[in-house]
Design goal:
Helices cover 11% and strands 34% of the residues. It contains two helices and nine strands. Strands 1, 5, 6, 7, 8 and 9 form a six-stranded antiparallel beta sheet that branches. The protein has a three-stranded antiparallel beta sheet with strand order 2-3-4, with no helix packed on it.
Length: 180
Amino acid sequence: MTGFPVAPGYPNTLHSLACYISEPKLPEYVRRFLYDQLHPDADICGMDVPLEACPKASLFLHVNIFHSASATYHAPSDLSGIGGMHREWIRATPSWQNGAARYDCVFLDNDPEVDGFAGLLVARVRLFLSFTDEDQTNYPCVLVEWFSTHGDSPCEDTGLWCVVPDHDARGRSVMSLVHI
């Protein structure tokens, strides 16, 4: 992530960051993320392969943290921008304008063949980070909490889909790293 200021006050190693943000599974998420990056055509995703099949990641891996990123996208249904192009800031910050935390939600493309909301995934951004592996490949990514739709159609009153956070068997939020 170039051009964005590194967030001050965060530890800069994977292990220290995992402790700092109280997410002990962060090193595992990095390993599973690396599996997906190194095996983009695999039949199974990194979150579903045995952890032993994932690349190792040093607990001393250097990480940079960011509180925001910009997204540029095309919205053909809203041509108010230049040809439907839009830019939005996505934030993940423990304090927004000296107030409460702000963790924006995002849509991620799941199936480009499916129109509308049904082709999207919903996640809440918890942390923007980047790291460079031993081969000097830089990986800009985001730690997200996953959400699933509630029901099989939009709300009759609002016309919007309702979503609920995904939880594992222990009641913890389902999280993963996603490439930006």
